[in-house]
Amino acid sequence: MSGSNTTGLPQTKDYSLGRGKLYIAKLNTATGKPDASGWRDVGNVPAFNTTVNVEELLHQSSQSGLKVTDKRVVTSQTVDFSFSMDETSSQNMALYFSGDTALVTNPAVAGFTAVSLSTSVKLGRWYDIVNASGVRAVDIDPTKVTAKEVAGNTTLVLGTDYKLDTKMGRIFLFSTATNIADGEELSVALTADAGASAQLDQVKALTKSAEQLVLKFISENPANNDQQVELEFHSVTLSADGDLSLIGDDWTTMQIKGTAQQETLGTGSARTLTITTHANA
């Protein structure tokens, strides 16, 4: 992808090695252009592939013993694409899971009074430390935790009755705990901790069936002095494609697929994919 060849001769600079960066923007459906939030770099993209699919109708003449094709009509064309992302940011995960990102206030910062985590505990189990609204507290300082067996108002002892996952905000009751037993009620209170992480990043999956986006791929060709060429898909709808391996011996990647859609508002004329380059790109 090096622009027009006006020499009439082969040019080695037109050879290409696939490299580049991928950007995504939300489509403003009222204007047909990327919305005011701008383009987001999705990070490293190990693979980006496009496929032109053509449907055709053939007509064959039956005027001789051997039928021959005397007319070929293309009835439809689509440009499909797929790419993989290996940066597992919240935004990329939301893209893969058809969801939204959210920032949630960490309850550990303000703290909270005693909340019942279970009215009938089972020893040897983990329990999430949540506030009265069910929001998980994370980045917990063990000295800020007060765990109790409710009926007897008995304070549990760290290291004897329980241990904490302080990063993810969970409490584990030892099977050998002496101050709480199976079937009893467990409560936890947190003292305010201004030093705790202020917010939690969350991805809420499957909150949207589809979202119209604009896709921009800027290739950079090391076979031609890193010349750049831009491919802009003016309207696309993306969806997950394939497995997301959460355990494995290779880098985790998210596979995405989509189809280029025609857009007419942005310039007043129909456009699906525009490829742009210039001499000094």
Can you describe what's shown?
- With 281 residues, the protein is mainly beta.
- The protein has 2 helices and 18 strands.
- The strands form 4 sheets. Strands 1, 2, 3, 4, 5, 15, 16, 17 and 18 form a 9-stranded antiparallel beta sheet that branches.
- A hairpin with a 4-residue loop joins strand 9 and strand 10.
- The longest helix has 7 residues, at 90-96.
- The mean pLDDT is 94.
Brief descriptors of the model:
281 residues; mainly beta; nine-stranded antiparallel β-sheet; four-stranded antiparallel β-sheet; 2 helices; 4% helix; 44% strand; elongated
Query: Hey, roughly how much beta strand do the residues contain?
Result: 35-45%
* Inertia-based shape: elongated
Q: Give the class from helix and strand content and strand pairing.
A: mainly beta
| Main β-sheet description | 9 strands, antiparallel
Q: Spell out the helices and strands N to C.
A: EEEEEHEHEEEEEEEEEEEE
In quaternary terms, these chains amount to: single chain
Number of helix segments? 2
State the helical fraction.
under 10%
Our Rg estimate from Cα atoms comes to 29 Å
On the 0 to 100 scale, the average pLDDT is: 94
Low-confidence stretches are: none
Tell me the total number of β-strands.
Answer: 18
How far the N terminus sits from the C terminus, by CA atoms, comes to 11 Å
